[in-house]
Amino acid sequence: MGTEARKLQGEVDRLQQELQTLKAQYHSEDEELITISDYILKRLEQLNVTSIFGVPGDFNMPFLDFIEDHPTIQWIGNCNELNAAYAADGYSRVKEHSIGVVVTTFGVGELSATNAIAGAFSEMVPVLHIVGVPSTTQLKNKPMLHHTLGDGRFNVYTKVAEQITAAQAIIMNKAQAAAEIDRILMEAIIQARPVYLTLPMDLTTEKISAKRLKVELPRTPPPNNSDVESYVIDEIMKLVEDAKRDVIILVDACAVRHDLREEVNDLLVKTQFPVYATPMGKTSVSEEYERYGGIYIGSITHPSIKERVENANLILSIGALKSDFNTGMFTYHIPARHTIELHSDHTLVRHAKFPGIGMKWLVPKLTERLSKFQEGASRIPVPHYKFDIPKESDDKISHAYFWPRVGKFFRKQDVIVAETGTSNFGVLDVPMPDQCIFVSQILYGSIGWATASTLGAAIAARDRHLGRTILFTGDGSMQLTVQEISTMTHNKLTPIIFVLNNKGYNIERHLHGLDRKYNDIADWKWASLLTTLGDIEGKLTRSYTVRSKSELDKLLDDEEFASARKIQLVEVIMDKYDTPRALQASAELTARAAAGQL
Prior knowledge:
The chain contains 24 helices and 21 strands.
């Protein structure tokens, strides 16, 4: 769906919501008043938000009073705004059916968060960015205030936000405050993108009607055009018949981003078609499911998986995000004539595009029609992918050994966060237990994202009563956002943090400059870090350094360590030049692409 069509559909959705709201207001006799601040928090409460991240600043502190006094929403103070927005991103990814929220101050604070908000936009993560701004009088008169550029351009920061958020609400009076708040929250939910809200200091305590709160915000996109949808389903059914039922399903990131996990699982069970996932779709399908075959990454894929996917007569792709690292540097060998793509706002059947036919409503109907193929599809063999621990002659910890070994350490419902680069490529091949949630930033790839994102992921995991939160990151990446470990300690979170110490930027070495000094970093005393960052008395955390396979095995087999009752950091000493198989293959493809050979 094009930009103009999306805007038009968004306006239709807004008007439908307004109509429902007006009906509720008409039938409501009471005229309860509520502050704008409390209105925002009530809407967030309805969206199951329990934590808000951010940094205090003079323009947002009046609103922070309301957050701190709220009975069910917790304020999580961060070390800087970039980390706060990363944490909101991680929270949103794990707290499905909800959104992340970050609060910053005008100018300096919001610009600090900009990189993380851009990442959330890129990766389709719904985050509400609330900016405390000067009073409405100051915004109109434009005095030379602190946190401005000193030239009277008070709107310059909003212009930045327009480039990296799906919708913006600039509140300048109380009359339209509630409608504007509702509008951008609907956009965040339906588009799965970040949105931007400014809240002037003098409006935080202004009172407005609470009647709109009687109508909760919609969580699903508008229904598809029934005639076009029926035609699309008929066309898909013909292709499945022509494929002689040799159909596989390929699940990608947007199946999760657009809240389709349950519908996809229902499709898999009722059809029994073999299913594979992309790197960004990892754990969108249970990797213990008997019809799951593994991860497809174009030419980087394990040969047995690659052959099965690329030789299928028909591929039903759900929620594809065809970025470079997600497709093995664009090395998919799947012709369009063998592909059906289901997206949030359109459907592709071979070369034909059907705008406005979204997968949220299409998949359940398609499932009922495709279920008749279950018996035949269930006979198609799906070899279960295994990632065995290799037999190596020395005791050094290699990537080939480390990743399948930690795979044996994973448990059901673990939340596993991998930093962009070495860790992400290393863990992709590792099968994860049922109900695990894999969190990564493969498309945007902002170095340091994973550590701060782990804070939000761990809070969401605790809210959902999930298992352990486990972070894999490199020594270089960790140095960018390491401060947020202190926030984890302060909030009594207990992640297990594996820091791969290979003396620098491993992924950059293999992409370019293997022996260049710019890929080296200063070494840190990692095992002493936790007592510096919040655990002053040394009772809340535990640190380890492992230098050999035997030390690693002993630690991973230790039940006290595995129980994750306190924050634990494991420094893993690895060779400077060793790297995971998938990363090496990707680096070679990147070099070929740079040379114009792809």
